[in-house]
Amino acid sequence: MSGLKQELGLVQGVGLLSTSLLGTGVFAVPALAAQIADSGSLWAWPVLIILVFPIAIAFAALGRHFPNAGGAAHFVSLAFGPHMARVTGWLFLSVIPVGLPAALQIASGFWQAAFGLEHSGLLLVQLGTLLAILLLGMRSAGSSANVQVIIAGLIVAMVVAIWWKGGITPGSIQWPALSTLSASPMFSALAVMFWCFVGLEAFAHLAAEFRNPERDFPRALLIGMLVAGGVYWSCTAAVLAFHSYGGEMAASASLPSIVVQLFGQHALWVACIIGYLACFASLNIYTQSFARLVWSQTYEQKPKAWVAQLSRSRSPLNALSLVLLCCLISSLAADYFSLELDELIVYANGIFVFIYLLCMLSGCRLLKGSSRAMSFIGTALCILLLVMIGWKTLYAVVMFALLWLILPRRKQAAEASVG
């Protein structure tokens, strides 16, 4: 099924995934992690990378062997049938009410730090951000990829500049003794930090748009994940070195405050622009992935429907417009109810881990050899992550149960007969 344009290469894929993972997290989560676990967060990042690595291997194998715009829902469909696939697709879309408002809050916060915008101005920034994503979505995925490669370069350059000007070296970093670490703060930090590694399932929706998905998709996924992990650890080391966290300081203001200390007040707007662009990159790939999921599922059921139509650049522009409208409504609701950022993040994480779990279970059935072994390990790690998130996983569990009961099953039989 893909009418989508196949034009992505390895470098573009690395840019897309690394900015997706860095995006909204790189400016806020290192400070949040340091606030929760203090210097123990230096150990938390390697632990998280180890936890996520088998999951990434399994996703890479699934995307390599079964490239499709449906992403996670397509993998689940092959393993467990159409009804479970529809549940997974809608479960992925259920992150919109909690995940995207959190991302827009972080993005608009940089405009507040740089220009002192008031509440109404911040809402206009959020609206403008969604409009910019719509304009970029009028073009193919390659255009988004080229933009995000540049943004990834800017993020890495800023972190390198902070280390260089601040005199931070690997030898100057003081790792806490493992015997002094407490499990409870580490678990709480990991529950928040996992936000930084959600994006693998979104990236899977773009597998069908690689020129050579069997070769370049898994490479881009693994390289992008390692690049993002290195940047996150480097940012955490800088935040700890300058003690730029906690108190009344907003988490997203942590790195900009370090930039001001090192380069002067005039450099604040540079840091804020890079921070906003990082958030924009993450929002862009997520909304584009949501649009591809909506398009693929609609195309399978009603190929002539308005949402299933592609633009002249062969991008799912109609589906993207629908997704962005939902984003706008959700963001306005989050603002009205004054929902806190860390709560939104953890609720969204529960959804993502649950989807990861379904994909790992799919890998256990679909893959072979070492990739299948990684899927089994990934399944166990996803269950562990759900335990770390705790009772807030109830949002994901309740959404899954409701979707399982509400979504009709009659189309499952019809699709089976066609197959």
From TrEMBL:
Q: How does it sit in the membrane?
A: Multi-pass membrane protein
Q: Which Pfam families match?
A: AA_permease_2
| Keywords assigned | Cell membrane, Membrane, Transmembrane, Transmembrane helix
The membrane-spanning stretches of this chain are 43-66, 87-107, 119-137, 149-166, 186-208, 220-246, 266-286, 319-338, 344-364, 376-407
Subcellular localization(s) per the UniProt record? Cell membrane
Listed name of the protein: L-methionine/branched-chain amino acid transporter
The scientific name of the source species is: Limnobaculum allomyrinae
> What is the gene name?
yjeH
